[in-house]
Automatic annotation (TrEMBL):
It comes from Arthrobacter yangruifuii. Belongs to the phosphohexose mutase family. CDD domains: PMM_PGM. Its cofactor is Mg(2+). The keyword Electron transport does not apply. InterPro entries: A-D-PHexomutase_a/b/a-I, A-D-PHexomutase_a/b/a-I/II/III, A-D-PHexomutase_a/b/a-II, A-D-PHexomutase_a/b/a-III, A-D-PHexomutase_C, A-D-PHexomutase_C_sf, Alpha-D-phosphohexomutase_SF. SUPFAM superfamilies: Phosphoglucomutase, C-terminal domain, Phosphoglucomutase, first 3 domains. Pfam families: PGM_PMM_I (PF02878), PGM_PMM_II (PF02879), PGM_PMM_III (PF02880), PGM_PMM_IV (PF00408). GO terms for biological process: carbohydrate metabolic process. This is Phosphomannomutase/phosphoglucomutase. Keywords: Isomerase, Magnesium, Metal-binding, Phosphoprotein. Coiled coil: none annotated. Residues 392-466 form the Alpha-D-phosphohexomutase C-terminal domain.
Length: 471
């Protein structure tokens, strides 16, 4: 939060897809209450039910109460879901056909919190679909010195959706008949410490042929063991070591709000999100075609491996390429009627999950694929990773346009196709390599992702581009 000419300005905490800030600075009880009121007014929710929950961060319970106070003041009834993962919110918004929010800062450090919002049916709210209007109204209420009282205040009630959420996922992927698997799960002290025993364990539903070895299941928003961000390799080291130590078949790592899942094979090596996307796509295409769908659609962002669209075409589906970002993926999922979508960041989206992303459902598909046959995960994953990838490489540059111009001057030539769907993507016409260069929306970074048919070619392309970018 900042004051500009003695007026509230919330632009520091309102991002492209959610609200996120430092507790006590850019996100405070006063701000949250105003956002609760603005959410109801901007979305026209007076007289309707709004779902409100949050993760295990210390500030979440207070913020839940503040938001509920603002929302009920403007005439909405509030259904408190209390402790939830982000995909539990999406489930509840879908099955109850109600708008909702959850307080979480996902993988960000402990001093952060934020708000993820969804319309009824789990339709996402972004800066392009209502978030800016919510920000403007919240600023207005703060600058006016208070929230106007509605004609009739809303009521507050409570509901626990964990058991229903677990049962819903179990009905989508049946793990009861797979071979026994030893599974190490690193919850990172985040919400997967609550959802994993409910979905994969026997705390609520009958047990599955899974021997779950828990790492950091204690809910603790101070993240005492490691940051709940599996995208950073150092945060996977404990899981990798535990998988090898216990002779496990697979390892699963979730981020703080448990909407993303990362996979480790029995050797302790990561399975790329592109490989997981391809594996799940194969299963969803087969299931949809068996149900009579002629050409199931699979969504992938432009950073995923080209193995994904190749597999989709081979299996009788149609691949649709999108920009990076969950609001883009969800919009295209809906418009295309896609059965599944995957991103390089380990967000996985399912038509049967209201087009929303859920790390747990993706994990269940991987467990099913592994447990329905006898091969190891490393052997199984190999068929989905035929190419060599650089991963995402960030470069801090002072003049982003100039750095992009240097790369374009070098690579815009015969034999190379260039597209600007998101950043700039260069693809060799012989299919030997491709790379994408995107600018960060918030920092002076350029993000490089490169892929090639063999490791030396990928390294040559990667290093050449980085030399130009960092010149």
């Amino acid at each position: 939060m900042t004051l500009v000419n003695n007026a509230f300005d919330l632009s520091a905490s309102f991002k492209a897809y959610d609200v996120r800030g430092v507790v006590g600075e850019t996100i405070t009880p006063q701000i949250v209450e105003a956002v609760g009121a603005a959410f109801v007014d901007a979305q026209g929710l007076a007289g309707q039910t709004v779902l409100v929950g949050g993760d295990m961060r210390p500030s979440s319970p207070e913020f839940i109460r503040d938001f509920a106070r603002g929302a009920t003041a403007r005439g909405a009834d509030v259904l408190l879901l209390d402790l939830i993962s982000t995909d539990e919110l999406y489930y509840a918004c879908g099955v109850l056909n109600a708008a909702g929010v959850t307080f979480t800062a996902s993988h960000n450090p402990a001093q952060y919190n934020g708000i993820k919002m969804a319309k009824a049916g789990a339709v996402p709210i972004s800066s392009e679909t209502g978030l800016k209007e919510i920000q403007a109204l919240a600023e207005q209420y703060l600058n006016d010195g208070g929230i106007p009282t509605g004609a009739k205040a809303g009521q507050i009630s409570v509901r626990d959706v964990l058991a229903d959420y677990a049962g819903y996922l179990r009905n989508l992927v049946d793990l009861s008949a797979i071979r026994p698997l030893k599974v190490v799960v690193d919850a990172g002290n985040g919400m997967a410490g609550m959802t994993t025993p409910a979905v994969l364990g026997d705390t609520i539903l009958p047990g599955l042929p899974l021997d779950i070895i828990p790492l950091y299941f204690e809910l603790d928003g101070s993240f005492p063991n490691h940051p709940a961000n599996p995208l950073e390799p150092e945060n996977l080291r404990d899981l990798q070591a535990a998988v090898v130590e216990h002779g496990a078949d697979i390892g699963l790592a979730f981020d703080g709000d448990a909407d993303r899942c990362f996979v480790i094979d029995e050797k302790g090596n990561p399975v790329s999100p592109s490989a997981v996307t391809a594996l799940v796509a194969r299963r969803e295409i087969a299931r949809a075609r068996a149900a009579g769908e002629e050409t199931p659609v699979i969504i992938h962002n432009l950073i995923t491996s080209r193995a994904v669209p190749e597999l989709v075409a081979h299996d009788g589906g149609r691949a649709v390429r999108t920009r990076v970002g969950h609001s883009f993926i969800k919009a295209v999922m809906a418009s295309e009627g896609a059965v599944f979508g995957g991103e390089h960041s380990a967000h996985y989206y399912f038509r049967d999950f209201y087009n929303a992303d859920t790390g747990m459902l993706a994990a269940m598909h991987v467990l099913a694929a592994l447990g329905e046959q006898t091969r190891s995960l490393s052997d199984l994953a190999r068929e989905y990773e035929p190419y060599f990838s650089s991963g995402e490489v960030n470069s801090r540059v002072e003049d982003v346009p100039a750095a992009v111009a240097r790369v374009r001057a070098e690579f815009e030539r015969d034999g190379v196709t260039v597209d600007t769907l998101d950043g700039v993507t260069f693809t060799s016409d012989d299919g030997a390599w491709w790379f994408n260069l995107r600018a960060s929306n918030t920092e002076p970074f350029l993000r490089l992702n490169a892929e090639a048919e063999d490791l030396p070619a990928m390294e040559r392309v990667r290093d050449h581009v980085l030399t130009l970018v960092r010149k």
